[in-house]
Design brief:
By secondary structure, the protein is of the alpha/beta class. It has one domain (12-206): Rossmann fold. Helix content is 54%, strand content 14%. α1 (24-33) crosses α10 and α2 (41-48) packs across α6 (86-110).
């Protein structure tokens, strides 16, 4: 992704991020329950991989036998290819990110909901912080993050390789406007998100 994402005036748009296994998807669902428009950059990316033009360009760039499963782009295999090669990763990002950004902007513009939360795993790495009204970063101790990733079926090597490809967690926390500790239960996170949501709604009322 590149800077330049612009949203309609009068909207509060939260950039939601965090290290691997910090609970970003859960947090997004909780924000949606509180009435926000929720958008996942990863979900948009997954949809793009099924579009013929993008599918064909990726297949021409990579060996189909390494990235396809039953004729479809396999996101896990594709990730394994690009995370081992900075050049391949940069090429794929340059292909996908502009389209992801445009679709995020379109979804927010189309909606009448005034508060939107956009889950962007690589928000700070992509230089997008200034595009959002606020940035919110999920946090948990390093050991907790790794245990969660292993429970998802990742090997320790896979997890640590992905971690190295991102900014250190401490740097993400330092850059964020709000850091949400998610080392506890989903219920505890829900209460924190309810508090933030009330604040955002009150702020939106005051700006009218």
């Amino acid at each position: 992704m590149t800077p330049g994402l612009r949203f309609p005036r009068g909207r509060t748009v939260i950039g939601l991020t965090g290290p691997i296994a910090s609970g970003k998807s859960l947090a997004l669902r909780l924000f949606i329950k509180e009435g926000a428009l929720g958008i996942s950059a990863d979900a948009i990316s997954a949809g793009l991989l099924t579009e013929p033009e993008i599918y064909n360009r990726i297949c021409r760039k990579f060996s189909p036998d390494k990235i396809l499963t039953d004729g479809l782009l396999d996101r896990k295999k594709l990730a394994a290819e690009v995370f081992g090669s900075p050049a391949k990763r940069k090429w794929l990002e340059s292909l996908l990110h502009p389209e992801i950004l445009e679709r995020i902007r379109h979804l927010i513009t189309r909606s009448h909901i005034k508060i939107a939360v956009v889950e962007v795993p690589l928000l700070f790495e992509a230089g997008l912080a200034e595009c959002f009204t606020y940035t919110v970063c999920l946090a948990a101790p390093a050991g907790t993050l790794e245990r969660r990733a292993l429970k998802r079926g990742w090997s320790r090597g896979q997890y640590r390789e992905r971690v190295k490809a991102q900014l250190p967690a401490e740097e993400k926390y330092a850059r964020a406007d709000v850091v949400l500790d998610n080392s506890g239960t989903p219920r505890a996170l829900r209460e924190k998100i309810r508090f933030i949501s009330r604040f955002l709604k009150e702020t939106a009322k005051e700006e009218k």
